[in-house]
Amino acid sequence: MKNYHKILYFLLIVVVIFQLSACKNNQKKPVPQKKSNTTQKMSTPKELTKIENDTETIIKECQKLQESQKSETDKSSVSTLAPKGKQLSTSKNQQEGKSTGQEGNKQKQQKESPEKKSWSTIDKTVKDIHTNWNVLSPIAAKAGASADLLNNVSTAINTLTTKSTNKLLNDTMIAANNVYKYIPEIENYFKTTSPPDIKKLRFYNRDIEFNSATEKWDIATKDINELKAIWKVLRVKLPKDAKNASDKFDTGLSELEKAVQAKDNTITKIKSNVLESDIKSLEKASVSKK
């Protein structure tokens, strides 16, 4: 009987020791923490949006200057082809109104010419880009942007400054677009409402238009290939709602490629403008509805 009690006590002690050991092991096991599938990104900084808008402003002002120059050239051609009698009559009218013209010139001198006004706008906008970049650069670095990317943006902005200061019209447009090129690169580190790669399509499309104007067809051809490569990856990522816009872009890209292959800068400009409309449609169709 005594042996029976001893065995019973021994078994109870073993059970208690086993339970205590199990409890300690459970306490030592770390509680697994849920990991988020996606890293939370900051909202797009307002400075990045301002730089994007500023590049658009510069390009539009340059296009206005181009149209103005073309208009002046056309007027000059018409004047040269005008009948002699008409030219003499015009000259006589100019002499009769000389005094009135002198007064008008004084008033015109007081007003800034459209060309000067456009370049003033461009100069001011370039300075704004520098200011906003100085604020954005450390924010982008903190978000994960590499030193190489930040240096490339700085170089592009400095090139734009040089071209605009020297009033090189087409070069200024290309330089402004080259700053725009890095907008989607930086956007990748922030939350966006639509895929940043759509803006890459815009960059290459405009680069084709601007370089074809000076018949740099080697650059335009490379840009076409870049467009096709980006579009191949981007298209499968777009929502179903963007199908119509995607089909339009497919057609527009094919038409632009034909124009570049034909080395026709007039048709290339038209096809590039059409493709820009298709890109805007893509942006609207791909806006996140979350």
TrEMBL record:
Residues 26-35 have a biased composition (Low complexity). Residues 87-104 have a biased composition (Polar residues). Residues 47-75, 105-121 have a biased composition (Basic and acidic residues). Residues 26-121 are annotated as: Disordered. This is Lipoprotein. It comes from Thermoanaerobacterium butyriciformans.
